[in-house]
Amino acid sequence: MTNPRLTLLRRRAVSALLAATLAAALGPTALAQGSWPTARPITWVVPYPAAGSTDVLGRHIAQRLGAALGTPVVVDNRAGATGTIGGALVVKAPKDGFTVLHTTIGAQAIAPHLMGKLPYDPLQDLEPVALVGTFPQLVVVAPSQPFRSVAELIAAAKARPGQMAYASGGNGTILQMQAELLAQRTGVKFIHVPYRGDTPALQDTLGGQVQFMFAPLAAALPHVKSGKLRALAVTSAARLKSLPDVPTMAEAGQKDFVVEQWQAVYLPAGTPAPVVQRLNTEINKALREPAVIELADQLGITLVGGTPQQLAAVQRADSATWARVISSGNLQID
């Protein structure tokens, strides 16, 4: 009599063998040209909690990538350690295109200089695929605060050295780095109050428990529109269509202060170039789809795309910038 359990195990073993044989037969060049093994899913690692902007946008891109390749794409949230837990997972994955990292500037250009020795080098151990998008921050204060411009905020900080506090979504975030950059450029001293995420930081800024915050555009915009927050400036190069009366940091007196968050996609270093290029091509296609563009607009993200080389250049430049800021400020994870 046939044992059902043994039969099931045999079937699974045969399926696994067929999948491995198919992948080996196709090779990197075939993957790049249109044939993609469908017997196993792609793991799309997001090193941040679910429901954040990286997760939300990543899921939409992953869904379209799966449809284009004809294979499932499973999103795996591996939050923690400023995004480096998920990064470490991808670094150790096989170099075959089936484990993808959707991460941000925080893990790729800030954390390495702030956290000391990481289990991997973001510049050397991850292969750039595509820059997904960028988004600016707003310098915001509660209406109860007296500041109506960045100049007034800085003047108050100089008059009250070491007494002005700002909120951020945590140590090592771009929100903290922007405030530290402003402090270093203007010669003032702020108190950093890190929170576990942007939402509680924004709540205390709304309540006036801290004096100001560099806040993500999508999170802060509804409060600015409703009058619950006052926007003093935006960190983009040009004014925003959604807030035409809010000046840029340059217009507010801070020359060359263009600092934006970014999201990007990576693979383990050493992944064959044809595989990298295939994923780059499909991600760029996804970024041009109307539904993805509409979602990005809602999140305040400007979609970018482009080549792996362009992403690598952005990462190197930002890594150098934040290395200087962190060193000058003697910053470290609390």
TrEMBL record:
Keywords: Signal. It holds the Pfam family TctC. SUPFAM superfamilies: Periplasmic binding protein-like II. InterPro entries: BUG (IPR005064), Bug_dom1 (IPR042100), TAT_signal (IPR006311). Residues 1-32 form the signal peptide. The keyword Nucleus does not apply. The keyword DNA repair does not apply. Belongs to the UPF0065 (bug) family. PANTHER family: BLR1237 PROTEIN (PTHR42928:SF5), TRICARBOXYLATE-BINDING PROTEIN (PTHR42928). This is MFS transporter. It comes from Malikia granosa.
